[in-house]
Amino acid sequence: PAGLQNESHLQEFVTNLQKFCQEENCPLTKEEYLQLVNIRPQTPVEIQLLIENSEERLTEEQVEKILEIVGSNLPGPEVDEDDDVDEASGEENEENGPSQENGQEEG
Q1: Is the pTM above the cut of 0.70?
Q2: Is residue 24 within 8 Å of 62, Cβ to Cβ?
Q3: Which residue among 43, 51, 52, 88 is buried most deeply as judged by most CB within 10 Å?
Q4: Among 80, 77, 68, which residue's Cα sits nearest to residue 36?
């Protein structure tokens, strides 16, 4: 993700995140800013991995807002949502098909 970012993205991200952290009284370290920029987290679990003691330092709302700031200011790779849907439906068909047939044969 960092390869897709330019200086203006970084400046806007840092400005918006600093403003948010000051308003919410949830300061982040320089290292945490760098981690957010380099990894561009998309889930609360990723925030927990990147920000030390995030469970004690941040509320769920603050985590969601940080994710929103990351997503709106730092460009990331485009995700093809169709692939995820096809994989999920394919797995469901494989799991449900054989179990239903076996149940009917035994019963």
Answers
A1: no
A2: yes
A3: 51
A4: 68
